[in-house]
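Task card 7
Instruction: Convert sequence to structure tokens.
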Amino acid sequence: MNPFKNKSVLITGGARGIGLACAERFARAGARVLIGDVLDAEGASAAARLAGEGLAARYRHADAAHREQLQALVDEAIEHQGGIDVAVCAAGVGGPNVDFLDLGDADFDRVLGINLRGPFLLGKAVARHMKDTGRPGAIIHVSSVGAVLGVPTQTAYCVSKAGLGMLTKEMALSLAPYGIRVNAVAPGPIATDLTAPLQANPDATRMVMSRTPLGRFGSADEIAATVAFLASPDAGFITGQTIYADGGRLALNYVVAPLDTAAR
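Output:
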């Protein structure tokens, strides 16, 4: 049985990377997919390509930092797709690569506006629709290992993802009485456009892989598979959780040599 056949799925940040992989996965599973993004050429091309395969996909410009544009995205999904069953908040940006003392107020606000306030605004609009129509559904946030692993030059990004973890829990607790489940997927190093400069730098790649037990970059398709699981009935008793799809990174204790237990 296909759990997504004729379901309505809304995805922000769906023009490329993890968001696009999610859009492709849900569309090919028979869902009606609405992609929202600010990358109009890429988003429209992705939707047209999927539609050319005979799949149900649409694109609409939507900036995750703007309430009105997110509400318009939700309204379009309701009007053209009959409602919303699944929402994936995949829109996100990295902050400027600077030390904490050099991070400007405007840059901090911009990153949190997209990465944290955006999921808050979209989640509220989607959840209100689900509650008012008696339509239980799933909301999935795309977080990062940066939610728990600090990066000295990425204060805004890490703070935004840490906040997203608590937002996921708070939404899950508040929305559980309506049958609305809220979870997050937190990727480690994933081979996308965002990490292209890292992948092109052999020294940087070696450093990242030394901290990734599986020894490779993950794929956007692997993250999309985790998102699809959380959206499916197979995850029907899971809510308020963050799944770290990180190649084992969080499990690794950076010990250079085995502990000398005899000396203790």
